[in-house]
Amino acid sequence: MPSCAGPSTVVFDQTLAGYDFGPSHPMSPLRVDLTMRLATELGVVGPTSTSGLRTCAAPMASDDLIATVHQPQMIEAVERAGRTAEPDELHGLGTEDNPVFRDMHRASAHVVGASVEAFRQVWAGEVLHAANITGGLHHAMPDRASGFCIYNDVAIGIQHLLDSGAQRVAYVDVDVHHGDGVEKVFWDDPRVLTISLHETGQMLFPGTGFADEIGGPEAQGMAVNVALPPGTSDAGWLRAFHAVVPPLLREFDPEVLVTQHGCDSHAQDPLAHLMLSVDGQRAAYLALHELAHEVAGGRWVATGGGGYALVEVVPRAWTHLLAIVGGAPLDPQLATPGGWREHVRERLDRTAPYLMTDGRTPAYRDWRDGYDPDTWLDRAIHATRVAVFPWHGLDPMP
Predict the structure, then answer these.
(1) What is the CA radius of gyration of the chain?
(2) What is the pLDDT of residue 1?
(3) The CATH number of the domain where 118 resides is what?
(4) What are the phi and psi torsion angles at 164 (to 5°)?
(5) Are strands 129-132 and 169-173 parallel, antiparallel or unpaired?
(6) Which strands form 8-11's sheet, in the order they lie side by side?
């Protein structure tokens, strides 16, 4: 394994693929394998890397670390289910979303360990940026698994920052599903600002994340939700992002920016109904990278998340993310390597994308150019701004 020394790291080793719900489950570890293969062949990571991104091995999280967020009974239930293969629906185990698999606790603890190592390196000043694309398991609750997520590695990582002395942590979640688990853990903690842009819960799991969900009594305005209409594409999504995220981050002034990059907002994703392109997703990654430098001194932890178009979307989207984390963004017009495409054909008998772009040029209309109350998108953006901006001393009007 190469040295971790360098301006940025991705915490990864192949054993993280042990987080595997089985061959028929949408969240296949193949998406991670194909991402790292593509990133390696393009020189984003690995021995031929020309970026500042280095690969570090992932440690295993201890039960005590996991227990900073999850109830001891929950951890015991996961350990037991991984030994006996018996469901425990009280703790969300053995459901269609979260089937039991052997050594479930160990695999889940490994993902937590990888994410917390990324958080640790950034907070310790060893690196400026760190990523764990196997992380971002944002639905897991303190007392139960939920939505393909056993342990909430992101929440545990943020709690690690708080326990290490951080006073202001911002979390931005761009997964197509509401980041409900992370929001729940820090619902009443004013040290953590959580922002989630997602398809409306009227249409999609977990059915939450509306504009009026703004945090607990001690943290009003610290939970921020933008519930987007189905069919939202690059222009609308970026309009919503820029109308909400930068003003709040600038006002909150976090010490660390944490981001979750589920790429299931893509038009080809089979589990949701937004219509982003890889190019639109890349534009979001670039914007978050710039914001990390503007508001958090560059301290940035990026995780993966959802994404179920295993060949068409996830490898390209997350390779773009890793390249940006490494400080050397890829040209979207770049061709995918022939060796990678051949591996996809041999492994899956499928045709891989030829280019790193979907051929789109992301553009959006700035919120300051006017608000149209006749459109669902603008009503959603406006509702979020009205609900939370005043709590931060910001004017919600355009």
Answers:
(1) 20
(2) 40
(3) 3.40.800.20
(4) -90, 0
(5) unpaired
(6) 53-56, 8-11, 129-132, 300-303, 256-260, 169-173, 192-199, 223-228
pLDDT attached to residue 121: 97
Locate 177 and state its tokens: 């599903």
Domains held by the chain: number: 1
User: pLDDT tens-digit profile of 251-302?
Assistant: 999 999 999 999 999 999 999 999 999 999 999 999 999 999 999 999 999 9
Residue 67 belongs to a domain: no
Please give the model's pTM, rounded to 2 decimal places: 0.97
Sign of the torsion formed by the C-alpha atoms of 43, 44, 48 and 51: positive
Q: pLDDT tens across 321-364, in order?
A: 999 999 999 999 999 999 999 999 999 999 999 999 999 999 99
Q: Residue 116 corresponds to which amino acid?
A: V
In the block, tokens 């660390």 appear at 256
- Summarised one tens digit per residue, pLDDT across range 126-159 is 999 999 999 999 999 999 999 999 999 999 999 9
Burial class (CB in 10 A: 0-12, 13-18, 19+), 132: buried
Find, among 315, 391, 395, 306, the residue nearest to 352 by Cα. 315
| Distant-in-sequence, close-in-space partners of 229: CB < 8 Å, separation ≥ 6 | 199, 200, 236, 376, 377, 380
Question: Residue 48 is part of which domain span?
Answer: 8-55+111-392
Q: How much is the pLDDT for 252?
A: 98
DSSP per-residue letters across 234-261:
HHHHHHHHHHHHHHHHHHH--SEEEEE-
CB 305 within 8 A of CB 262: yes
Residue 352's nearest CA partner among 307, 309, 312, 308 is: 312
Maximum pairwise Cα distance, the chain: 59
| Structural domain contains residue 69 | no
Active centre residues (catalytic): 139
With H, G, I as helix, E, B as strand and everything else as coil, classify residue 225: strand
How far apart are alpha carbons 319 and 149 in whole angstroms?
A: 22
Domain membership flag for residue 245: yes
SS3 355: strand
What is d(CA 310, CA 291) in angstroms, rounded to the nearest whole number? 29
Q: Helix, strand, or coil here: 9?
A: strand
For residue 367, tell me if it sits in a domain: yes
